[in-house]
Amino acid sequence: MHVIFMGPQGVGKGTQATTAADRLGLTHVSTGDLFRAAIKAQTPLGVMAKEILDKGELVPDDITLGIVESRLEELAAEHAAGKHVNGALFDGFPRTPAQARGLDELLERRGERLAAVIEFTAPREVLVERLSGRRVCPNCGATYHVDFSPPKDDSICDRCGHQVIQRADDTPEAIERRLSLYDQQTAPLLNYFRDQGILKTVDGNRGVEAVSADIVKLIEESATSNI
């Protein structure tokens, strides 16, 4: 059983991915993390990916899918060894309909499937407020929010004492551009999964526990109905 989380920045996917993965025995799979691991291990696909990324280019779909399949093979081996691994929770992948079709073909070859695609939604003004309130420490990388999790001492990092800052891409204007780009790029992808009947929508503008409960229920229902 595999699941995809989709949604704009600031909608809470990261928080929910951790909770859902723990409750359902899924492994959180981020292609960014997979690239870094493959590059560090100097696997054949990792070496190819590094050469492409070093040129400032996008990694082709076939290499991305190859790295994803390698991770799925590892998860299958862990499951066979008796570990509590029920599948992957993809976050940030696929990014295009071509990658989605490639993933479908990959899973079909393996005799596996997507149980559900969860789309997180929230009003645009809420997303802008969440993201524009973010502050980061340029020294140690710690992240804060002026309303939800501010530093204990005004604008001073709790970890290292450095002054926290607002990133240039966290201004309201930059955030609006990012959100508009997300809408444009993901519309075809959402339609692809909607046509398959596996797209589920969750209101992310609620408390963490309420959202978590809905997600687990939707995934469990989808897994049962697709057997």
Q: What layout of secondary structure does this protein have?
A:
Layout: E1 2-6, H1 13-24, E2 26-30, H2 31-41, H3 44-54, H4 61-80, E3 87-91, H5 97-110, E4 114-121, H6 124-132, E5 134-136, E6 143-145, H7 172-196, E7 199-203, H8 208-225
Parallel strand pairs: 1-3, 1-4, 2-3, 4-7
Antiparallel strand pairs: 5-6
Helix pairs in contact: 1-8, 2-3, 2-4, 3-4, 4-5, 6-7
Describe the strand arrangement of the main beta sheet, using strand numbers: 2-3-1-4-7
Round the mean pLDDT to the nearest integer and report it. 91
Largest sheet: number of strands, sense, barrel closure = 5 strands, parallel
Helix % is: 40-55%
What is the chain-wise order of helices and strands? Answer: EHEHHHEHEHEEHEH
Radius of gyration: 19 Å
- Tell me the strand percentage band: 5-15%
Number of helices: 8
What would a concise description of this structure say?
This protein is 53% helix and 15% strand. It has 227 residues and is an alpha/beta fold. A 5-stranded parallel β-sheet has the order 2-3-1-4-7, sandwiched between helices.
Descriptors for this entry?
227 residues; two-stranded antiparallel sheet; 53% helix; alpha/beta; 7 strands; five-stranded parallel β-sheet
Question: Can you offer a commentary on this structure?
Answer:
By secondary structure, the protein is of the alpha/beta class. Helix content is 53%, strand content 15%. It has eight helices and seven strands. It has helices at residues 13-24, 31-41, 44-54, 61-80, 97-110, 124-132, 172-196, 208-225; strands at 2-6, 26-30, 87-91, 114-121, 134-136, 143-145, 199-203. The strands form two sheets. A five-stranded parallel sheet has the order 2-3-1-4-7, sandwiched between helices. Strands 5-6 form a two-stranded antiparallel ribbon. A hairpin with a 6-residue loop joins strand 5 (134-136) and strand 6 (143-145). The longest helix is centred in the last third of the chain and has 25 residues, at 172-196. The protein is globular. The N and C termini lie close together (10 Å). The model has no long low-confidence stretch (mean pLDDT 91).
